[in-house]
Design goal:
- By secondary structure, this protein is an alpha+beta fold.
- It folds into two domains: 58 residues, Alpha-Beta Plaits (2-Layer Sandwich), CATH 3.30.70.3550; 177 residues, Aminopeptidase.
- It contains eight helices and eleven strands.
- The chain has a seven-stranded mixed sheet, with helices on both faces. A four-stranded mixed sheet has the order 1-2-4-3, with helices on one face.
- Strand 8 and strand 9 form a beta hairpin.
Length: 244
């Protein structure tokens, strides 16, 4: 039987130290609580994120190691770079946040369910309204949403949550655009949470949890650029990313 601390809904209580997270399953730290904005923001500031399925209690995780992207080292393969030069898609930010979350929640071919429950969707919409949760959207020449990514920004740290593609390369375009913008705004890292071979091909790498926690603490305290993402988004054409 797995024994982990139980948090209480409606009570502002500290998370257990991440050093207490289980080794198997990797990073499981606590259960319960709620998805209120203060609790979610406190979790991210301490390198913790929620991840659970419908019908389960809220589960809180802090795996070791942690997969991250360095915003100045995103990998753009030669073939993708050639394709981007002729791409007529556009990239924007925070125009259709709920649509991106909904698309990320849609079941994938290799997964019947989704971890982005309606409660999660509602919670991140609240964070979006408060200016912490953001989306990057990729639209085709007809203006249709074909890919995107969303996550949380605190100070100068971005915590990626999920991305999706409806056309080949669309999520890659969103990720590259995100990293390029964040690099310009002084963000050094993007949290990618859990290791996967696909993310590694895009330049992600594992970072020891202790190092990650230190980097997060420092980045979250840095002042963020003023103004909304939608107003200061630097890119319009995906083709501009060929030189990223």
């Amino acid at each position: 039987m797995i024994r982990i601390p139980i948090l209480h809904a409606g009570v502002q209580e500290a998370f257990p130290p991440v050093t207490q997270a289980l080794v198997e399953p990797d990073g499981l730290l606590a259960a319960g609580g709620d998805l209120s904005p203060p609790r979610l923001l406190d979790a991210y500031r301490h390198g913790i994120f929620p991840w659970y399925s419908e019908g389960e209690p809220i589960l809180w995780w802090s795996p070791d190691p942690r997969m991250v992207f360095a915003t100045d080292r995103i990998h753009v393969a030669t073939r993708l770079r050639r394709w981007l030069r002729h791409c007529d898609w556009t990239v924007r930010a925070d125009v259709a946040f709920s649509d991106v979350v909904r698309a990320c929640a849609a079941p994938r071919r290799d997964h019947a369910g989704t971890w982005i429950t309606q409660a999660m969707h509602d919670a991140y919409r609240q964070l979006h309204a408060l200016g912490y949760a953001h989306s990057v959207e990729v639209c085709d020449a007809a203006g249709e949403l074909v890919g995107g990514i969303y996550g949380i920004a605190i100070g100068r740290m971005f915590f990626g949550e999920s991305m999706f593609s409806r056309q080949t390369n669309a999520s890659k375009v969103a990720l590259i655009a995100l990293c390029r913008a964040l690099r310009a705004w002084g963000f050094a890292l993007v949290d990618a949470q859990v290791s996967s071979p696909h993310l590694v091909t895009l330049g992600a790498f594992d970072m020891p949890r202790a190092t990650f926690i230190d980097r997060v603490a420092q980045a979250c305290e840095l002042p963020a650029e003023p103004g909304s993402w939608r107003k200061r988004w630097p890119l319009e054409r995906a083709s501009a990313l060929a030189g990223a």
